[in-house]
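Our preliminary data section would be incomplete without showing what the modeling component actually yields. Below, a chain of 81 amino acids is followed by its predicted structure, encoded as tokens that our downstream tools consume directly.
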Amino acid sequence: MNSISQECQQLKNDYDHCFNKWFRDKFLRGVKEDECKELFKAYQVCVKKGIREKGINLEEVERNILGTEHEKTTPPPKDGH
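Predicted structure:
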């Protein structure tokens, strides 16, 4: 799967490679220390920037809905509609 932003694609590829190698060679053998966390943080920053550039509201995306009183309510109308 491609990243949300082309600018993040190399970071995604690097993180995926790092994670898969760590999971296979370390985690499955009991080593829990995440060697890829810095790559993940860099990729996460890039993805969030790409999301904002596409006009997607991160607060709305990250809002907890399932299991709350908001789960089955109709979303509020968008401005101007």
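Residues 6-62 form one domain. The mean pLDDT is 89. Preliminary results of this kind motivate Aim 1 of the renewal.
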